[in-house]
């Protein structure tokens, strides 16, 4: 039963990701990207990582996708059609990506992944992960808030730059 | 804490999750190499980031080590900051050059 769910989810995830790449319409790409993120969240739920599933939905499907949609509508890109450059770039990208995938498969065949039989499978719950986050990783957590402050200041600086140049 | 989830660890080998992440990463890579619109390229970078996140989460869940999931949490924080700054740069370039084609972005170099 659960393996069928896994394979259905995996195929849907890869199909949605492919649709992001091949659809001409930017808005459609964004909506397929949202679908991809929701399917990846479903994978996290399958893996018993509820905290990451929630954070993935809130951060990616909530915040990042709203930013993307806002920028696409702000720049009025929903009618733009990319110039068709022939199939040669697609062929080159398919060969490059496919050979990367082959490298991963051959590396996997050489490696022996040890299965940890008595692993603790409830580490992804909010309570356990929160304990680890606030006990062992407190300093990186505080530093990441500084990172957000810097990003905010950087965005404000980037959007104000033109006025300074024009004066 | 017995839920339905832990049976996946015996039903699906870890290799399948690694292959799924690699496939997602390759899809994102193909998108980065072929598309010309900078917004789509940015979205494909997000797919690649998510593939890496999925791989870290699955390995950490299979081995019962919370370090991987903490790493994914920080990756998401960095990705949120990165998207904000990147989209601000895209909007600025669009204001100045009236295009989101990736070829005009070579104007960014000093």
Molecular structure report:
The complex is a heterodimer of chains A (167) and B (110). Helices cover 77% and strands 0% of the residues of chain A. Chain A is built from 6 helices and no strands. The mean pLDDT of chain A is 85. Chain B has 110 residues and is mostly helical. Chain B has one domain (7-108): Helix Hairpins. In chain B, helix 2 packs antiparallel against helix 3 (38-63). Chain B has 4 helices and no strands.
**Which residues of chain A form runs of ≥5 with pLDDT under 50?**
none
The global form of chain A is: globular
One letter per element, helices H and strands E, the order of chain B comes to: HHHH
Largest interface: A-B, 84 and 77 residues
| CATH C-level of the domain at 1-82 in chain A | Mainly Alpha
Question: What's the SSE blueprint?
Answer:
The complex is a heterodimer of chains A (167) and B (110).
Chain A: H1 2-22, H2 26-46, H3 50-74, H4 88-110, H5 126-135, H6 138-166
Chain B: H1 8-11, H2 14-34, H3 38-63, H4 67-97
Q: Which key features would you list for this structure?
A:
heterodimer; A: 167 residues; mainly alpha; Four Helix Bundle (Hemerythrin (Met), subunit A); 77% helix; B: Helix Hairpins; elongated; disordered N terminus
Short description:
Chain A has 167 residues and is mainly alpha-helical. Chain A has helices at 2-22, 26-46, 50-74, 88-110, 126-135, 138-166. Chain A has a domain at 1-82: NADH-ubiquinone/plastoquinone oxidoreductase chain 6, subunit NuoJ (Four Helix Bundle (Hemerythrin (Met), subunit A), Up-down Bundle), CATH 1.20.120.1200.
């Amino acid at each position: 039963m659960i393996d069928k769910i896994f394979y259905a989810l995996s195929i849907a995830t890869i199909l949605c990701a492919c649709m992001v790449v091949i659809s001409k319409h930017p808005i459609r790409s964004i909506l397929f990207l949202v679908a991809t993120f929701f399917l990846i969240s479903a994978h996290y739920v399958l893996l018993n990582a509820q905290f990451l599933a929630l954070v993935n939905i809130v951060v990616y499907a909530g915040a990042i996708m709203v930013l993307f949609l806002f920028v696409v509508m702000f720049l009025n890109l929903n009618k733009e059609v990319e110039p068709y450059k022939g199939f040669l770039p697609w062929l080159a990208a398919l060969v490059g990506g496919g050979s990367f995938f082959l490298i991963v498969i051959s590396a996997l065949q050489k490696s022996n992944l040890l299965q940890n039989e008595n692993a603790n499978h409830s580490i992804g719950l909010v309570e356990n992960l929160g304990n680890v986050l606030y006990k062992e990783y407190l300093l990186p957590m505080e530093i990441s808030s500084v990172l957000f402050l810097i990003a905010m200041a950087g965005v404000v600086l980037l959007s104000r730059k033109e006025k300074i140049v024009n004066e | 804490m017995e839920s339905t989830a832990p049976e996946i660890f015996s039903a699906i080998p870890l290799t399948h999750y690694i292959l799924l992440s690699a496939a997602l990463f390759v899809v994102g890579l193909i998108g980065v190499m072929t598309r010309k619109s900078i917004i789509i390229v940015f979205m494909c970078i997000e797919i690649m980031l998510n593939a890496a996140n999925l791989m870290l989460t699955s390995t950490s869940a299979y081995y019962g080590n919370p370090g991987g999931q903490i790493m994914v949490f920080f990756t998401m924080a960095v990705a949120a900051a990165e998207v904000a700054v990147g989209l601000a740069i895209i909007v600025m370039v669009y204001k100045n050059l009236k295009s989101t084609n990736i070829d005009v972005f070579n104007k960014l170099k000093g």
